Amino acid sequence: MARLFEYQGKEILRQVGIKTPRGKVVKTPEEALDAFEEIGGPVVIKIQVWTTGRAGIGGVRFADTAEEVKSIAGELLGLKVGEFEVNELLVEEKLDIEREFFAGIVINDADKSPVVIFSSVGGTGIEEIAREHPDKVASHTVDVVRGFHSYHGRELAKRAGINGKLIVKVGNVLANLYRAMKLYDARSVEINPLVLTKDGELYAADCHIVVDDYAVYRHPELGIEIAREFSRPATELEKIAYKVEKDDYRGTFYFFQMVKDVPPDGKHIGFHGAGGGGSMMSMDAVLKAGFKPANFTDTSGNPPASKVYRAAMIILSQPNIVGYFASGSGVASQEQVNSARGFVKAFLEDDLDIPAVLRLGGNLEEKAIEILETYLEDLPVKVEGYGKDDSADFCAERLKALVKENGRKLHQVRPLKEFVPPENSYKIETLTGSIYIDHEACNKCESKACIPACPKDVLKLENGVPVLNLDPEEVKKGKCTECLACEIACKFEGKGALYIHLPIPGLKEYREKISRES
Predict the structure, then answer these.
(1) Hey, what CATH class is 22-93 in?
(2) Sign of the dihedral through C-alpha 351, 354, 357, 358
(3) Domain locations in the chain as residue ranges
(4) How many helices (H) and strands (E) are present in the chain, helices listed first?
(5) Which residue, 152, 154, 118, is CA-closest to 138?
(6) 202 DSSP β-pair partners
(7) Pick from 222, 230, 203: which is nearest to 51 by CA?
(8) Which of 76, 120, 310, 503 suits a disulfide with 161, CB 3.0-4.6 Å?
(9) Buried/exposed code over 59-87 (b: 16+ C-beta within 10 A; e: otherwise)
């Protein structure tokens, strides 16, 4: 899910006809002063963070004079709220409030329908309102075919205790709120409080909107950097990881840093799960073994080897971890040979310096384990592969033993190796990368191992060298599944003439920065 800031949500509300106070987003005390002069009266100054209860932590302040505005803005900007640093404030006109309400819509996953909720009491969370004033709260499950219209809203307002002409205004607001939800593919929208001013107008005094992460690509105008419902801003590494996911529909890749700056305590590991339930079970196992996950990562839904490779390279961009642990649910839908090849490419390119235990339970797990044992045996650290019959607890204990054997050595993040294609190399573009083939080196190769290694017949031999066997446009659209089999076969059974370049935008610069700081 992707949370929007209050000011972003209010812009959406204005588009659908819901009134909001006049206001402006500011980033400096001087800009706050300009906003105050533009509004021309008493203002409310609110920190823009993804949290509720801002008033309780001093994040909502009132000011009547220019001096107060500048002083308050100076105090609030840079304020630490949990892991959040306040960089923006919303300066709005102070409303003359007569009464407060609550209006919201949320997706009920059980009913697979939106539920519109209205309360004639506002100002606190809806759970607390429902507990203390159950007769003041009404809800309506929306028939998505019929939609939600103003007459539905009027009926809801009446059930919550609203009378007179106000029923019409509330009904219109609720109908427009539903429009906003549909227009922006929101999972939830909330106005709390929806206020009635003394001149009889309804305003959204506050607003919270969460957009469905799978719909973020349809709304570039929102400027969402990462479609995750974090309680803090995304880290630089999380943003890099999200770019991998949003541009590749094959399988899923979720990366979350549990520790932004990993301490050199010899307890943190890189965690790589596969499947929700299996990942949670595996997380419990590493915790019982005395480790602390530096991150939570999930690659599931049968991702290609290229996505597993990128996930591993991002996990290994965290300094001070002492081990790498991969373990999932063991479901048969996961082609574990793809995971294995992704790990092989990442660990070899990164010159892995910490031990890894990879539990690759699922389809073709025996072949996957064989790939790990065959191609990673010469690493300076141990990498062990296991299947679904080996418990997550057992695998976590194996990592514990290997970390101890490795002297609890801390992982050192190094700059990415620069890839320079051989001169006059043969290039094939894939969905997310490029295959480069050095035909001069191919002429010296007797095995031509890359040809039988490719399960999709992407390559063929022509005049003794591998060339593209399929339509280039089809290959670029995904006919080449980026399984990495041809590269690994060429590296270990041929002349190393074939390389698959899988760029990770932003990671090169990130690693250079981390290397300088280490």
Answers:
(1) alpha beta
(2) negative
(3) 22-93, 97-222, 236-405, 426-501
(4) 17, 25
(5) 118
(6) 196
(7) 230
(8) 120
(9) bbbebeeeebbbebbeebbebebeebebe
- How does pLDDT run across 97-113, given as a tens digit for each residue? 999 999 999 999 888 99
User: 402 is written with which tokens?
Assistant: 């290997």
Domain 426-501 has CATH 3.30.1300.10: no
Give the span between the Cα atoms of 365 and 327, in whole angstroms: 12
Q: Are 349 and 417 in contact (CB under 8 A)?
A: yes
Count Cβ atoms within 10 A of the Cβ of residue 377 and give its class: 0-12 exposed, 13-18 middle, 19 or more buried: exposed
Question: Taking the model in full, what pTM does it have?
Answer: 0.82
Q: How far apart are CA 439 and CA 416, in angstroms?
A: 25
Could you confirm whether domain 97-222 is CATH 3.40.50.510?
Answer: no
Find out whether 43 and 72 touch, Cβ atoms under 8 Å: no
What is 236-405's CATH topology? Rossmann fold (3.40.50)
Residue 249 burial (C-beta neighbours within 10 Å; 0-12, 13-18, 19+): exposed
Q: For 362, which DSSP code?
A: S
Residue 332: per-residue pLDDT:
54
193-217 tens-digit pLDDT: 999 999 999 999 999 999 998 888 8
Tokens of 484: 């990495």
N-to-C CA span, the chain: 33
Largest CA distance in the chain: 89
Beta partners for residue 222, in sequence order:
none
Residue 369 to residue 468: CA distance in whole angstroms: 30
